[in-house]
């Protein structure tokens, strides 16, 4: 998979030859003529650990600080030519990771090295161009290497491979991701959890130990050098450093491994060129391998997670890491025994300078480095996820997320050809009714007062069991706290019930459903009247100053108690959950050009403001961490809004991260939705919640994420969602789901779920008891065709999109 190039290899050899020859002559000459000053040029002995003397600033890693301070005495190479060890210095050039590095670090430092690093006798160098994600950057790097006639190897980045590698959202308990209100965890724990989730993606993209091993391999198989230096790309070798390394190699011919402590440059790179530059090699060392050394780096350790230290530990190199604790998963992949061929001590060999990363703060503080590194990695993965969604799946902010556009086109062709009349006729019938309804606005409640806030533009709805009080003349008195009557819904809090016109929930639902029917009917029939009407509904609810809703749900499900502020609860946010299909309708309207560009912008601005509120308000944050269906429906809401408003990274991450809720939401072994099983209307919540997962799964297919197949119980390897379906769907088992508290649900609400099930799940084994075919209605056995025979509209509370059976495609 790695392409190798050997540009100008012969030229380099020739130059090397000339240099060594010349060097030999000059040195001999010096020995003859200036024997009295030999001491000044004596090669510096390798630093010895036991010797005394304080090396300034050696606090961080004192054991690596060369204890002798006469580094300055060593200006230039020794003036006679002792035999040197042959070495190959191989460096990995990789993606700069802002904000940890400046964007230019890779190019800047490469330029610096090519301009200022000497050719040393018996020393060759080679480069690994490691998984550049940006082709433009890779070209610039390759250009420079070619011009300088360097030899190099490219390890390419492949977006398809990247995309197939999975995040481990289902391996980490939800608590560690969705910052809990109940259990405080430290930032460090959060970062660690994030890293574990990203682990496999990081291993591939950053490939830190992968490239190190590839460099080692290259040194062993493509060069005769006695010592291999598979080092980080920003390492710069001064003459002094080289000499010092050479003398240590010469002094320790038996050693298989050497540690070369790192000097982290705090100044700009040019400082290195000054005669007065004093290295401070106190940082985690690079490692030199004798070509007979057999240990490799552990490729299971990711960037930022002790990838080099793990080998140092195996080599028995003492260091601050002796006090570090390791994760079980890391202990499991490292045997921690001495590397089998490490012979006694691992000597120090010189030092190396790490060129400046362009972010001075990070160079000074290890803590800042860690923080910026985590941030940088997350940003890089977000960029790549975005690229994969765009380039591999064609996702844009106008992509329909719930309905499948191609499938809708097929259905439009069928309509034109006069097929599938029943379901199409039903859609047209309802759309014709919708032509006569609406428009709806939060101002419609004005004649009943404007609710708690007094601003009619605020969406307002009391919590169902909280009863607003009346004044003496029988009018609602919004200035008084509500009274709780458990289990008895206050008048008007049921959708479309009489009295509901004093609140906004019914208007919002009617607006969303009617507008969606109009948009779908337009996409089927091409009849402009439908989409014009849909556009006018949108203007009225979202755009026009006189009638628009303010973009927040602060007063949804208000529980105003005497001792508390009169705002809504987090649960009220679920009243906007239908955006997963509604925003598809909005996009259909936009594409029809029934909205002007300005109006289009207003719509997107409205949702951007609402999204801002959704993620930053206390109510939003509380909803986010709910363990039951509310947390899930929060994601079902945030993802499509984020996509619509162009916050693609957030859209992708909500679809990916929702998987982390599976673990706390569903018993992965049994498929029991335990949070929902205890609800008084248990059967409803089983179906409702599974429908939420099905909706999430349907959206996530648009980014190549298969919720049904991907997330499995570790022990049984059964799909978690399929298990949950087998447990709860009355068609798939004989038991009563919620003995004693079923609420005579319309059993047909399980049909859309059965269609999903038959598409994605293996039929349950009959265990000698039941033949599945007996349980699944014959009309449902061929879901590809028969789903059109199922009801297109269900009860609003069922969480099933209107005409869910159109534009359905996997
Ligand atoms: C180069 O290194 C080899 C050992 O790898 C050594 O035998 C030889 O003398 C060295 N050549 C020079 C010019 O130092
Ligand atoms: C990075 O390089 C570009 C082009 O060489 C230059 O314009 C830009 O200022 C550099 N940025 C930094 C932070 O050095
Ligand atoms: C009750 O509220 C209504 C509407 O706000 C108001 O018109 C009426 O004057 C109030 N009656 C009393 C007795 O406060
Ligand atoms: C459309 O709006 C009307 C009038 O508000 C309402 O009665 C009806 O239920 C709505 N249709 C749908 C499908 O929601
Ligand atoms: C709507 O309100 C905004 C902000 O108050 C104002 O800038 C704008 O001019 C108004 N538009 C119309 C048509 O009244
Ligand atoms: C899942 O259900 C099984 C069987 O009832 C039970 O043993 C297990 O503890 C449950 N798992 C969790 C996480 O509650
Ligand atoms: C789990 O099942 C899936 C689907 O059948 C299969 O692709 C995968 O290899 C299985 N995994 C294991 C660990 O058996
Ligand atoms: C299950 O029932 C179907 C139709 O009722 C029948 O064709 C099939 O053979 C049965 N399968 C088993 C395993 O009994």
Automatic annotation (TrEMBL):
<feature type="domain" description="Alginate lyase">
    <location>
        <begin position="451"/>
        <end position="734"/>
    </location>
</feature>
<keyword id="KW-1133">Transmembrane helix</keyword>
<keyword id="KW-0456">Lyase</keyword>
<dbReference type="InterPro" id="IPR008397">
    <property type="entry name" value="Alginate_lyase_dom"/>
</dbReference>
<keyword id="KW-0732">Signal</keyword>
<dbReference type="InterPro" id="IPR008929">
    <property type="entry name" value="Chondroitin_lyas"/>
</dbReference>
<dbReference type="GO" id="GO:0016829">
    <property type="term" value="F:lyase activity"/>
</dbReference>
<keyword id="KW-0472">Membrane</keyword>
<keyword id="KW-0812">Transmembrane</keyword>
<feature type="transmembrane region" description="Helical">
    <location>
        <begin position="12"/>
        <end position="32"/>
    </location>
</feature>
<dbReference type="Pfam" id="PF05426">
    <property type="entry name" value="Alginate_lyase"/>
</dbReference>
<protein>
    <recommendedName>
        <fullName>Alginate lyase domain-containing protein</fullName>
    </recommendedName>
</protein>
């Amino acid at each position: 998979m790695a392409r190798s190039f050997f540009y100008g290899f012969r030229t380099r050899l020739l130059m090397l030859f000339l240099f060594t020859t010349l060097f030999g002559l000059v040195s001999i000459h010096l020995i003859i003529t200036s024997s009295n000053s030999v001491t000044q040029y004596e090669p510096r002995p390798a630093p010895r650990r036991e010797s005394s003397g304080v090396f300034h600033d050696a606090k961080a890693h004192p054991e690596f600080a060369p204890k002798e301070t006469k580094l300055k005495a060593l200006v230039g190479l020794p003036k006679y030519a002792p035999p040197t060890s042959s070495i190959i210095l191989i460096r990995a050039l990789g993606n700069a990771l802002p904000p940890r590095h400046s964007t230019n670090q890779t190019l800047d430092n490469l330029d610096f090295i090519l301009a200022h690093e000497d050719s040393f006798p018996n020393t060759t160098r080679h480069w690994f161009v490691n998984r550049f994600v940006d082709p433009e950057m890779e070209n610039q790097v390759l250009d420079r290497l070619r011009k300088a006639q360097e030899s190099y190897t490219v390890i390419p980045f492949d977006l398809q491979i990247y995309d197939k590698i999975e995040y481990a959202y289902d391996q980490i308990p939800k608590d560690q991701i969705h910052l809990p209100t109940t259990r405080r965890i430290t930032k460090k724990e959060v970062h660690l959890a994030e890293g574990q989730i990203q682990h496999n993606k990081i291993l591939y993209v950053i490939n830190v130990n992968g490239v190190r091993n590839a460099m080692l391999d290259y040194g062993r198989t493509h060069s005769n050098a006695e010592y291999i230096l598979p080092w980080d790309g920003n390492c710069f070798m001064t003459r002094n450093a080289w000499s010092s390394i050479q003398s240590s190699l010469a002094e320790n011919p038996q050693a298989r491994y050497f540690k070369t402590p790192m000097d982290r440059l705090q100044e700009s790179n040019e400082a290195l060129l000054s005669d007065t530059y004093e290295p401070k090699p106190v940082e985690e060392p690079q490692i030199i391998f004798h070509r007979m050394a057999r240990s490799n780096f552990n490729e299971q350790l990711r960037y930022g997670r002790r990838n080099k230290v793990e080998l140092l530990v195996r080599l028995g190199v003492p260091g601050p890491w002796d006090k570090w604790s390791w994760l079980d998963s890391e202990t499991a992949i490292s045997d921690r025994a001495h590397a089998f061929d490490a012979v006694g001590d691992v000597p120090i060999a010189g030092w190396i300078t790490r060129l400046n990363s362009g972010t001075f703060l990070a160079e000074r503080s290890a803590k800042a480095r860690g923080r910026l590194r985590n941030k940088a990695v997350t940003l890089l993965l977000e960029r790549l996820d975005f690229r994969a969604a765009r380039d591999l799946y064609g996702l844009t902010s106008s992509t329909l997320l719930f309905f499948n556009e191609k499938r809708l086109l097929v259905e439009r062709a069928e309509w034109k050809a006069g097929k599938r009349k029943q379901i199409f006729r039903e859609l047209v019938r309802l759309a014709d009714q919708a032509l006569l309804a609406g428009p709806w606005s939060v101002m419609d409640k004005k004649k009943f007062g404007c609710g708690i806030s007094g601003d009619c533009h605020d969406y307002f709805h009391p919590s169902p069991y909280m009863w607003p009080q009346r004044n003496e003349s029988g009018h609602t008195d919004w200035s008084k706290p509500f009274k709780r009557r458990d289990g008895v819904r206050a008048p008007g809090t049921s959708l479309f019930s009489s009295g509901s016109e004093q609140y906004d929930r019914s208007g919002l639902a009617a607006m969303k459903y009617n507008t969606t029917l109009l948009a779908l009917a337009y996409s089927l029939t091409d009849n402009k009247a439908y989409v014009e009407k849909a556009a006018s509904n949108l203007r009225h609810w979202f755009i026009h100053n006189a009638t628009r809703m303010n973009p927040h749900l602060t007063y949804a499900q208000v529980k105003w108690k005497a001792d508390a502020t009169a705002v809504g609860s987090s649960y009220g946010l679920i009243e906007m959950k239908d955006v997963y299909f509604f925003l598809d309708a909005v996009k259909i309207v936009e594409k029809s050009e029934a909205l002007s560009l300005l109006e289009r912008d207003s719509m997107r601005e409205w949702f951007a403001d609402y999204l801002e509120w959704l993620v930053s308000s206390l109510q939003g944050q509380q909803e986010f961490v709910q363990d039951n269906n509310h947390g899930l429906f929060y994601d079902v809401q945030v993802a499509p809004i984020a996509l619509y408003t162009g916050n693609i990274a957030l859209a992708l991450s909500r679809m990916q991260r929702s998987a982390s809720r599976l673990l706390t939401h569903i018993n992965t072994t049994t498929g029991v939705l335990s949070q929902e099983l205890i609800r008084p209307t248990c059967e409803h919540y089983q179906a409702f919640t599974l429908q939420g997962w099905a909706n999430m799964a349907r959206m996530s297919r648009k980014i190549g994420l298969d919720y049904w197949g991907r997330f499995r119980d570790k022990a049984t390897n059964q799909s978690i969602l399929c298990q949950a379906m087998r447990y709860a769907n009355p068609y798939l088992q004989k038991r009563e789901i919620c003995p004693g508290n079923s609420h005579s649900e319309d059993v047909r609400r399980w049909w859309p779920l059965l269609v999903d099930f038959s598409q994605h799940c293996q039929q349950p084994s009959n265990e000698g008891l039941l033949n599945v075919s007996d349980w699944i209605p014959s009309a449902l056995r061929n879901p590809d065709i028969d789903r059109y025979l199922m009801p297109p509209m269900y009860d609003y509370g069922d969480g099933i999109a209107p005409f869910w059976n159109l534009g359905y495609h996997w």
